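Narrative summary of target 7.
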Amino acid sequence: MIEREIIREILDGYDTENIKIGAVASHSALDTFDGAVDEGFRTLAVCQNGREKTYAKYFKAMRRNGVIWKGCVDEAWVFNKFGEILLEKNQKRLVEENVLFIPNRSFTSYCKLDEIEENFRVPMFGSRNLLRTEERTEEKDYYWLLEKEGLPFPEKIEDPHDIDELCIVKLHHAVKKLERGFFTCSSYSEYMEKSGRLLEQGVITEEDLGRARIERYIIGPVFNFDFFYSPVHKELELLGIDWRFETSLDGHVRLPAQQQLSLPEKQQIPEYTVCGHNSATLRESQLEKVFELGERYVKATQKHYDYGMIGPFSLQTCLDKDLNVYIYDVAPRIGGGTNVHMSVGHPYGNTLWRKRVSTGRRIAMEIKMAIEEGKLKEVVS
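Modeled conformation, tokenized:
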């Protein structure tokens, strides 16, 4: 891991009156840029050829005398591959342009984590040392952290022979490598039958199946809690909640049971590719336990990972029939569903700050406050 002091020395050369907010142009980048513009920053989208029009054309920023009146993307750098942003010459350009980089899931998916950790010499807002915990193949992933500190998560099934109630098998999709090849089963025989069919269809591979994580399925609604930890104020905030649309799972649940049973074999097992999000709130009587989970997660990161959590993170959860909360995924950076709140803000973030506050805007607010209070070095890694 690149020493934080090296990043802070690079930051010393920044013109803090001309900071730009940059991100890989995918995932939650529009929320990042929209929020940055709301707080007076210029924005830079790192695009991939063939996927750049959303940012370079349709949401291109229009300004009059420096005042924005349309769009949110001031500059779009277009590369053949996202990973080219890691090239030394491009890192130098970012530093020369006073860019603070906001890591999202696309950044860590399309760019090598080793390179981000060791060689990306650009100040990043957030916790560089936590990005690897999102990888379920790592020994010290977020499950390790949750278990270490006694945070609730679905029970792991070590051996598929032990499947005796509804479980979910979590692994990568064989073709859509950034997506899920998940499936559910209630017995070992169903596990063998479904995995066999998915192997035949090329949806999963034997290798990925061998290292898949099997968990008891929590029957209940899904809530992604979008938190923010402020190093400037040393406070935790719950900004909002989102939930996912997943294909073709959502297509299946829209069908009556009789139609589901009549589907041909290749359509019978739903896929869990995330394609969109929606907003949600939680019963107020349950909010305190959610805050407690967020506080415990932040303390856990501070205990085990040097400087711990900086800025946005998402605890992705299920609630069972008794309103017990189980964490099934952790995003140690801006979540994937925050675009649903851009321009209108998060329900809880709005209530707290008395204005429209999305995750993207909250990031920009923290950077702005850090600059004003001489604490910018505390929010970068």
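The mean pLDDT is 96.
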